[in-house]
Amino acid sequence: MSDKDGCTRAQHRLPVWHAFSDLFLDTELQPGDYRRIADVARRSGYSPEELRLILESEVARAFAFNFLDVAGEWTSWSEDEVREIMARSERALPPMRWLRRRMFRRFLDAEWRKISALLEP
Description:
mainly alpha; globular
């Protein structure tokens, strides 16, 4: 699927996926990290509602594995790695029921509040 500029959905979403993937690192993000993530999200052209849906239904689904790993990734994934993880997730994973679990819901809600507060220019 391409948009009017010939950009595929994945190409257009990749910067957002890449930025949001940092939320799933095994490290504590700093205020500057949230500002950077919000800046990428703001420049994407997606509405706040679309961004939250991308975070919850696409990125969380693909990167939640890092929370389950005893020695989770703590350095950012490259754009190529993010593209591959997202493609693999879309091909292989059924919709995640873990999102309904309180722990993950609280995590996503807290992270979204930090980002959404910074979306306004």
